[in-house]
Amino acid sequence: MKILVQKFGGTSVQTKENRTHVIKQIKRGLDAGNKLVVVVSALGRNPDPYATDTLLKMVDYKEKSIHAKRELDMLMSCGETIASVVLSNELQQNGLNATALTGAQAGLITNDEFTEAKIKKVKPDRIKHELMDHDVVVVAGFQGRTESGDITTIGRGGSDTTAVAFGASLQAESVDIFTDVEGMMTADPRVVDSARIIDVVTYAETSNLAYQGAKVIHPRAVEIAMQAEIPIRIRSTYSDHIGTLITSSRTKEMGVDIPDRLVTGIAHIDEIAQLNIPIKENDIQSQATIFQTMADANISVDFINMSPTKVVYTVSNDVAKKAVQLLEEKGFKVTVVEHCAKVSAVGAGMTGIPGVAAKITTALTKNDVKVLQSADSHTTIWVLVENNQLKLAINALHEAFELNKTSAYI
Ligand code: ADP
Ligand code: MG
């Protein structure tokens, strides 16, 4: 039995009109001789009635205790459950032999970290059984259950991960992530008009781009696919374009020897804040206290720069005020720059190539972009800029690395 997994995101299943395109893609998958597992997100976005954030607004828990989170998962999971039934029914109306399953019924088992649960395993027996009797099994994404039967959700973007987890467990031919853009692009097309589709990209580059904010796919999904060596395709619900193939090696897939590209794409994360804390020279204890304070308050820190006289790092903008308050209570003086964005140039071939940093600084300076902080690794260069210069910065880097000019690998 050849199995293909298809995943459709929130906008793809939002309206009946949109779902006609979904049904077309499902028929195409069936015509190619596959049985289909179709993973769906909730219908639409807030304020659509069954979107995740709309459902969340129906309750108000004062404290996010484990009990509250368990109940929130029961509530949130309804969005995907509804979507799975609605789509399955429309497939049936179109003469297709389809059925729907919740994540729990489909055998997605997680730990009990409610609202951010981690997938422990997939028990594929039920899906396999349904695939004997049906051509299409529609599975509610983003949700699973604990061993003891409580409903869980696996965090934002979780339906991508659901799709790949089933793909791996069922040894699918491929996992196709259908969305509202035609593939993984050299930058977010909402920010860069000249962004181009990347034809083929490695798991490593994709996971890196995803972690740095390219939200077209969830990084955890890429990691699972990499381990299971299942190819992923990112493509549009609304077109025939073949999209982006994510695999282990570009060279193998393209059949020719293509050198690693210096920069594959530019990703960004906005709404972060930079904290700058002077310390007494070589006061190592202060450095430790600062990060322990953040850890105790469960605030995640990023972009850390330490020197003998100061500690600089970033936190998410929505916890910035709390972070400052906690540090001031411990006697630190904190300067904060709110509303910043982290821009990352991600590649596979940066190691030891001279001139990359020069290219970045020249491009940003030419466009009057103020760099608040920067760092680099062998695959990534990061710069921190103010949110209002984000578009300028990304476009400058996109142009400097000529990502708009040629197809990404040819
Ligand atoms: P879905 O609901 O289908 O999961 P998402 O909104 O999660 O869709 O992801 C698709 C969006 O990701 C696109 O509309 C696009 O704006 C954004 N995006 C960010 N970075 C990239 C990128 N490098 N390539 C393509 N899309 C990107
Ligand atoms: Mg998504």
Layout of helices and strands, plus pairs?
Blueprint: E1 3-8, H1 16-31, E2 35-40, H2 52-56, H3 66-93, E3 98-101, H4 103-106, E4 108-110, E5 119-122, H5 125-133, E6 136-140, E7 143-145, E8 151-153, H6 158-169, E9 174-179, E10 200-202, H7 203-211, H8 219-228, E11 232-236, E12 244-247, H9 250-254, E13 265-278, H10 284-296, E14 302-307, E15 310-316, H11 320-329, E16 335-346, H12 356-366, E17 373-376, E18 380-386, H13 390-400
Helix pairs in contact: 6-8, 7-8, 12-13
How does this model look, in words?
The structure is a single chain. This protein is of the alpha/beta class and 410 residues long. Helix content is 35%, strand content 25%. The protein has helices at 16-31, 52-56, 66-93, 103-106, 125-133, 158-169, 203-211, 219-228, 250-254, 284-296, 320-329, 356-366, 390-400; strands at 3-8, 35-40, 98-101, 108-110, 119-122, 136-140, 143-145, 151-153, 174-179, 200-202, 232-236, 244-247, 265-278, 302-307, 310-316, 335-346, 373-376, 380-386. Strands 3-6-2-1-9-11-12-10 form an eight-stranded mixed β-sheet, sandwiched between helices. Strands 14-15-13-16-18-17 form a six-stranded antiparallel β-sheet. β7 (143-145) and β8 form a beta hairpin. The longest helix is centred in the first third of the chain and has 28 residues, at 66-93. It is globular, with a radius of gyration of 23 Å. The model has no long low-confidence stretch (mean pLDDT 95). The site of adenosine-5'-diphosphate (ADP) has 18 residues, from loops. The site of magnesium ion has 3 residues, from loops.
